[in-house]
Amino acid sequence: TLVSSVNKRPDFSTTGQWEIITEKGGQKESAVFDAVMICSGHHVYPHLPKESFPGITCFKGKCFHSRDYKEPGMWKGKRVLVIGLGNSGCDIAAELSHVAQQVIISSRSGSWVMSRVWDSGYPWDMMFITRFQTFLKNNLPTAISDWWYMRQMNARFKHENYGLMPLNGTLRKEPVFNDELPARILCGTVSIKPNVKEFTETSAIFEDGTVFEAIDCVIFATGYGYAYPFLDDSIIKSRKNEVTLYKGIFPPQLEKSTMAVIGLVQSLGAAIPTTDLQARWATQVIKGTCVLPSVEDMMDDIDEKMGKKLKWFGKSETIQTDYIVYMDELASFIGAKPDILQLFLTDPRLAMEVFFGPCSPYQFRLVGPGKWPGARHAILTQWDRSLKPMKTRVVRGVKTLCLFSQLFKFLAIAILLIALFLVLV
Ligand SMILES: Cc1cc2nc3c(=O)[nH]c(=O)nc-3n(C[C@H](O)[C@H](O)[C@H](O)COP(=O)(O)OP(=O)(O)OC[C@H]3O[C@@H](n4cnc5c(N)ncnc54)[C@H](O)[C@@H]3O)c2cc1C
Ligand SMILES: NC(=O)c1ccc[n+]([C@@H]2O[C@H](COP(=O)([O-])OP(=O)(O)OC[C@H]3O[C@@H](n4cnc5c(N)ncnc54)[C@H](OP(=O)(O)O)[C@@H]3O)[C@@H](O)[C@H]2O)c1
Predict the structure, then answer these.
(1) Distance, CA 85 to ligand 2 centroid (Å)?
(2) How many whole angstroms from 273 Cα to the centroid of ligand 2?
(3) Treating both helix axes as pointing N-terminal to C-terminal, what angle do 271-287 and 323-333 enclose, rounded to 10 degrees?
(4) Ligand 2 pocket: which of 47, 108, 125, 177 to mutate (most atoms within 8 A of CB)
(5) 95 and 236, same structural domain?
(6) What is the pLDDT of residues 56-110, one digit of tens each?
């Protein structure tokens, strides 16, 4: 069922109700709702910036957006240019490289390309998205935290050597996750080039003056835009055509807080737990058990956040946010944020895991509404459970040397406590 319009009822300022028009099989229906949660995603409208590429209209080969790429077979033995070094571009290029004669990715600003398989074979986010890392990022001097970040991003291979190096490597924009791409570049079946300056009927001329000749196909893996055609645009983009949503969820200018946008915010962490917490808070606001601040305070918060986003992510229209800081913020509104200091005093084993281990969604089920009695156990067993599906051939008697990492953790705690002591004294 298509939602074709969402409009305030005439008595919205007192009831907060919305009139919704839906369409199915040519039939329109109208219904009134007390609240609306918009969960329409942001990978629906392809961004196809042909105007940025002079000569593309003269190009004689095939040309389409990554959304229309379905399978590699038809490009067997062909020469393919992929524009854009995001996850779509890299997935498509790596797949095509097994059948195509040559694949080139052109990149405007480079990207960090991470392996999903990280230290000791654990998934990247289990090792990387931790409270400890976030604490360091937010508290170390910027120069040190930037240096540390770039060092981690270059840990598997030096991006400079593979033509992937981002122009501004300290920006925390979304990395690409692709285990295969570095190997395909190493084999020579994929090459990385700068942005395309100009197209001719059959070739692309890059900004460094080099040319990719006899191209059969150009794939624009240039991302997506978001739009809410069923809604008055000013509700979500209330200023300068920018998304102005309090905490990325609530339109601040509404007389009643009965609309929430779920899933627009994008972070380095997993999308589902983020939207889960957004929905938990939104339902409390809609029910009236949580109250939003004044319009002025919400607008000030949006402005302050925008400043920080520019620093970390570098784009004014960004919908990106820091995972743990954002999750904690949402959780604190509903009383589901874990109190780390108190945990260290009452349950040090769990505290260690919560602070140094992955910020798994169970952390937001330890306390508050929606508390789950199994959360503690789930956190303490998450490392073993993550590897269980792979351990299909178990070799007995293999000893693990985890003493060093334990020592490192205790050292880090000692340093933190000393730092806290020095701050308080
Ligand atoms: C190629 C690709 C690969 C991806 N791979 C991964 C991955 O491996 N891991 C990962 O975590 N994320 C991945 N993502 C991101 C992932 O798609 C999102 O995180 C996730 O789908 C967001 O879920 P959502 O429910 O918010 O939006 P969506 O999954 O986009 O769902 C929105 C739904 O709303 C519907 N809708 C929109 N407008 C209307 C309307 N007017 N009326 C009625 N219905 C409407 C849409 O049809 C759609 O069904 C990928 C994205 C892309 C594009
Ligand atoms: N396997 C997966 O997990 C997977 C697969 C596909 C997609 N996804 C997700 O889906 C979302 C969309 O991914 P995506 O790769 O389609 O889009 P994306 O992440 O937005 O990447 C778009 C790419 O196109 C480039 N680009 C945009 N406009 C351009 C222009 N005018 N000229 C030159 N280059 C331009 C960008 O360059 P700049 O960096 O310079 O802006 C960027 O490299 C992401 O969140 C992604 O994680 C995930």
Answers:
(1) 6
(2) 22
(3) 20
(4) 108
(5) no
(6) 999 999 999 999 999 999 999 999 999 999 999 999 999 999 999 999 999 999 9
Do 183 and 83 fall within a single domain? yes
DSSP states of 35-101 as a string? -EEE---S-SEE---GGGSTTGGG--SEEEEGGG---SGGGTT-EEEEE--SHHHHHHHHHHTTTSS
Per-residue pLDDT band at 422 (split at 50, 70, 90) = confident
Residues 216, 73 within the same domain? yes
Q: Which contiguous run of DSSP H or E holds residue 308?
A: helix 295-313
For residues 354 and 348, give the distance between their C-alpha atoms in angstroms, rounded to a whole number.
10
Final residue of a structural domain among 333, 360, 394: 333
Q: Are residues 204 and 263 located together in one domain of the fold?
A: no
Q: Are residues 415 and 269 in the same domain?
A: no
Distance 32 CA to ligand 1 centre (A): 26
| Shortest-distance Cα residue to atom 47 of ligand 2 | 87
Compute the 3-state secondary structure of the chain and give helix, strand, coil in percent, each to the nearest 5.
40, 20, 40
Q: Does residue 375 share a domain with residue 295?
A: no
Largest CA distance in the chain: 72
Total domain count, the chain: 3
* CA–CA gap between residue 353 and residue 57 (Å, rounded): 56
Q: For the packed helices 131-139 and 348-356, what is the interaxial angle rounded to 10 degrees?
A: 60
Last residue of a domain, one of 224, 248, 283: 224
Could you tell me the pLDDT band of residue 309, with boundaries at 50, 70 and 90?
A: confident
Would the pLDDT of 113 be above 90?
yes
Residue 278 corresponds to which tokens in the numbers above?
Answer: 């957004």
Q: Are residues 186 and 271 in the same domain?
A: no
Q: Identify which ligand lies nearest to the alpha carbon of 65.
A: 2
Residue nearest to atom 31 of ligand 2 (CA): 49
271: domain range?
2-42+226-333
State the chain's mean pLDDT as an integer: 92
pLDDT at 414 over 80: no
With a cut of 90, say whether residue 366 has pLDDT above it.
yes
CATH number at residue 320: 3.50.50.60
Query: Residue 187 has which token pair?
Result: 């084999």
Residues 343 and 360 in one domain: yes
The pTM score is: 0.91
Mean pLDDT for 282-302 is: 95
Distances (CA, A) of 174 to 69, 205, 423: 22, 28, 33
